[in-house]
Each structure stands twice: as C-alpha cells, then as structure tokens.
Amino acid sequence: MAAGRACSLAHTSRAVFLLLMAALAVSGCAGGPQCAPYARSLTGLALSGDAAAWWRQSDGRYAHADRPAPGAVLVFRPSRAMRDGHVAVVRRLVAAREIRIDHANWEPGRIDRDVPVIDVSADNDWSLVRVWWRPSRGIGRTAYPTFGFILPAMVPSSETAMR
After folding, report:
1. I want to staple 65 with a disulfide (CB 3.0 to 4.6 A). Which of 18, 81, 133, 149 is the partner?
2. Of 68, 71, 53, 75, whose CA–CA distance to 147 is shortest?
3. What is the dotted CATH code of the domain comprising 35-159?
4. Position 22 pLDDT exceeds 50
C-alpha cells in the first residue's frame, strides 16, 4: 500500500512539474532570450513590457523616425504571427532599402546578429519589411508591418527623417 502511494505521489509530482514547465514555455519565461530585454540591453532605452508597447511608451520620451540609423530600434507592429510585436536594433545601413539588425527570439531561443532586413513598403518608408529567415537561408516570404524606428539619445536625430 505504501509503495503504491509513493508511486502515485511521484507520478503526480512529475505531472505538476511538466505542467509548470509548459506554462513557463508559453509565457516566454523559459524560452531563452526575449527581444525587448535584449534590445534594451543594447540601447539603454528605458522602456519595458511587450515589444508592441514600446512605440507608444517612447512617444515624447525618444525621437521617432521613418528611416533607419545605427543604434535605432525597429519596432514591429503586432500581427497574427507576433501578437506582442517585436523589436530589433539597427546594426548598420547597407543600402537605401536594406539594413542589418541584431535581435533575439525571432527564431525561438536565439540571438542573431547582423541579420538582413529589407524595406518592401510601397512608399519606401520602412512601414513594411521582410526579415532574413535562417532555416530557409534567405529573406523570409512574410512582410511584417512596423511602426518605425525609436532613436536612443546616442543617435543624432539630424541623421534621419523625423516623423
């Protein structure tokens, strides 16, 4: 009888452990680096919460731009694929419609550096972009809407067209 109770307790403990791990994974707490804390660590921006909230939080605190600059944060709008949005830090400009970014968790649990992003917006304003997708070894097929760029204090606002 005691052996049966111990076995039942061990099975219950394992089930509770697995449920907790699943909850952590869904919440993003156990899935490795997240985009917002990673971008904050690179830029020093005093913003918090989901990536999608950064645009509104930054209004009046940091300059916004519709053109990239090294050190600026590209803010992706929420979408079906990314309900919390996404943020990435501009590493360098390559061409008028191509930049390289550093970001976390585009591919779950990864930090990627010097990732190609291209502007595919009709008005050349970076409001719609496509991002390199490592598994396919090319620019992804999906076009993602963006709010624009947040300029940390270290980025001179004269280098970009202001919104």
Report:
1. 149
2. 75
3. 3.90.1720.10
4. no
Helix (H, G, I), strand (E, B) or coil at 10: helix
Q: Are strands 138-139 and 63-65 parallel, antiparallel or unpaired?
A: unpaired
More confident residue, 14 or 55: 55
Phi, psi of 139 (to 5 degrees): -65, 135
Q: How confident is the model at residue 13 (pLDDT cuts 50, 70, 90)?
A: low
Question: pLDDT digits over 56-95, tens only?
Answer: 999 999 999 999 999 999 999 999 989 999 999 999 999 9
| Burial bucket for residue 73 (CB in 10 Å: 0-12, 13-18, 19+) | buried
Listed by start position, the domains of the chain span: 1-30, 35-159
Radius of gyration of the chain, Cα coordinates, nearest whole angstrom:
20
What is the secondary structure of 40-109 as a DSSP string? HHHH-----S-GGGHHHHHBTTBEEESS--TT-EEEEPP-SS-TT-EEEEEEEEEETTEEEEEEESSSTT
Q: Which residues contact 121 (CB under 8 A, 6 or more apart)?
A: 127, 128, 129
